[in-house]
Amino acid sequence: MNTRLAEHAPPAAAAAAPLALKLMQPADMARWDAFVAACPEATFFHRAGWQTIIARVYGHQTWFYYAERDGQIVGVLCLAEIKSRLFGHSLGSLPFCVLGGVAATDDAARPLLDAAAEKLARELGVGHLEYRNLLPAHAGDPSWYQKELYVTFRKEISADDEENMNAIPRKQRAMVRKGIKCELRGVIDRDVERFFTAYATSVHRLGTPVFPKKYFSVIKEVFGDECEIRVILRGPEGEDELIAGVMSFYWRDEVLPYYGGSLPAARECAGNDFMYWNLMQFAAARGARVFDFGRSKLGTGAFDFKKNWGFSPTPLAYEYKLIASTELPDNNPLNPKYQLFIKMWKKLPLPLANFLGPYIVRSLG
């Protein structure tokens, strides 16, 4: 070999700079979000703003890890700790979000971020580590468990209202038309007041503790125009009888109605049905081409409602690694041990339920 050429040849190691593991700082948030926007497997729930929301509203400690190579972010993992006497001690990606887990453009970043999460989970002494994945990330790894509890509903939509209407199954389409005949209308609110009234009333009917109003206000503050608050009203302008409300997220070419609720009057005028049609109309006009109906638990009314719209369920791959616990968590309303609590909660006066609810949900995530 020509020794003179060898002296000037780049070392093999220079082809791939080493990975570095770092924690997101406030100065990193913009480039974190730039990575998330460009990463195909990242979701709205990988956004840096969730750290602000979880910390400000609930006070939970968070760790937003990222893997960096040659000064560029190549993988992220959002984690938050929840410690509760009632519901256990966990580290998850990400509480209060339907999705999470590792999002990466470099396969070498995945084991690095996984190892950081497991190390942190053991240092904290949590019962379990949870990833809320869209697709399995640890298939074939016996140390990770998966539960079949949630599904998601997603469907492409058109820019044409008539085409979207005709894609709705006949019986459900009749309910949408009923709302139209009742002259319901949708308007966008800049604050959460009317939406929260509809949402809190609805979850109380279900026997579910309510999130604090502050939670929704901070979400709107953090995500701005990417978070839309739509309320459904009845009656001429000026009377404005509140029927229903929904908080939705816009992400890439998708719209995701995330929190919704209605008042009892919605039943007589198909208020919920009209609300989602009204959102679909305006989202399509805004350029959305995917309607993400969000997650639902198997065997629930929400699951049936979304299927009736012609959406097909896709299982969500929620994965768990047991750390200090010996069994998988089961903190959901379908668990028989919570049925008495649900019945009692429905009987509470709404103002009392709204006061107590936030103290409970902060530990559920």
UniProtKB/TrEMBL annotation:
<keyword id="KW-0133">Cell shape</keyword>
<protein>
    <submittedName>
        <fullName>FemAB-related protein, PEP-CTERM system-associated</fullName>
    </submittedName>
</protein>
<dbReference type="Pfam" id="PF13480">
    <property type="entry name" value="Acetyltransf_6"/>
</dbReference>
<dbReference type="InterPro" id="IPR050644">
    <property type="entry name" value="PG_Glycine_Bridge_Synth"/>
</dbReference>
<dbReference type="GO" id="GO:0008360">
    <property type="term" value="P:regulation of cell shape"/>
</dbReference>
<keyword id="KW-0573">Peptidoglycan synthesis</keyword>
<dbReference type="GO" id="GO:0009252">
    <property type="term" value="P:peptidoglycan biosynthetic process"/>
</dbReference>
<dbReference type="InterPro" id="IPR038740">
    <property type="entry name" value="BioF2-like_GNAT_dom"/>
</dbReference>
<dbReference type="InterPro" id="IPR016181">
    <property type="entry name" value="Acyl_CoA_acyltransferase"/>
</dbReference>
<dbReference type="InterPro" id="IPR003447">
    <property type="entry name" value="FEMABX"/>
</dbReference>
<keyword id="KW-0961">Cell wall biogenesis/degradation</keyword>
<feature type="domain" description="BioF2-like acetyltransferase">
    <location>
        <begin position="189"/>
        <end position="307"/>
    </location>
</feature>
<dbReference type="GO" id="GO:0071555">
    <property type="term" value="P:cell wall organization"/>
</dbReference>
<dbReference type="GO" id="GO:0016755">
    <property type="term" value="F:aminoacyltransferase activity"/>
</dbReference>
<dbReference type="InterPro" id="IPR017469">
    <property type="entry name" value="PEP-CTERM_FemAB-rel"/>
</dbReference>
<comment type="similarity">
    <text>Belongs to the FemABX family.</text>
</comment>
<keyword id="KW-0808">Transferase</keyword>
<keyword id="KW-0012">Acyltransferase</keyword>
